[in-house]
Design a protein that fits this description.
By secondary structure, the chain is of the alpha+beta class. It has helices spanning 2-15, 66-74, 161-170, 172-179, 201-212; strands at 44-49, 54-59, 78-95, 98-115, 120-129, 135-143, 146-151, 154-158, 186-188, 192-199, 219-232, 235-253, 257-276. Strand 1 (44-49) and strand 2 (54-59) form a beta hairpin. The radius of gyration is 21 Å and the shape is globular. Residues 35-59 have a biased composition (Low complexity).
Amino acid sequence: MRRYAFLLIVLLVIATAGCLGGNGQAPTTTEGQISTPTTTPNLETTTSSSPTETTTTTFTPPELDLNGLLENVLGIKQFTYLSNATLNMTVTIEGNGTSQNDNVSLRIIERGYIDFDSWSAWINSTTLSLQDGARTNASRIVVNNVTYIQTPVGWVTSEDPTVSEVLWRYSVVGLAREYLGEKPDSVEGGEVIRLTYLVPDYKLKPLAALYFAVSENTDVVVRDGKLELWFRDGRLVGGRLSFSVSSTAEVDDPVLGKMTITQAGTWDETFKVTSINEKRKVNPPT
């Protein structure tokens, strides 16, 4: 089963492909960690007690201006970022009267540039198996919503806008645009303001399917979705997205025969915004 991690990495090349820069060269990706900002909670609470229960109510700090934060985020037309995701899963493969189990842990590191004005982007990614060190580097370029994906056999082009939609929607800025219009489930104040949202399962299913679906008929179930958005001085500086997921797929392999592949695991990704509104040119691959 050790080779499953490598095979999964190959399957993830399309899903986690990172993009080439505007100069046509893929910058080197380093495996640095993104640290969660240290915050000093600055929340007011009131507590009422009775012989049978205790109720605690948390109030949003009065200085927090969600509309102002949203206005600042909507003003982000271009940005660069670093993200670090950890994917942990238990995999069970059943077929031909046998059953195999394995634990798989992958780290996916991305450096990218996203331009909402021109609907263009480049991303570089490295996917690393934490068990055996197997890794792959991949690239993706989006120009005017046309996606160019670098695979082991060359560049593949897709004009389907749904391919790039995942990129716009689940980037840290895309998530901030979507959720800042809603009341956060919790707020931590201090030098860095941290807003936490409990994300409905259906909103994360397209992202989960990208990484956990091994075939078109894979049944994917998402739970425990949580989004954090981090702000310093009213400016978006990063965030975190996590969820649990399970999937089941029936696969008919011409060599191995019919198999049932079951996966259960977690996704945990941190984002760091590294620049805002610095326009860069993105060209299709040559």
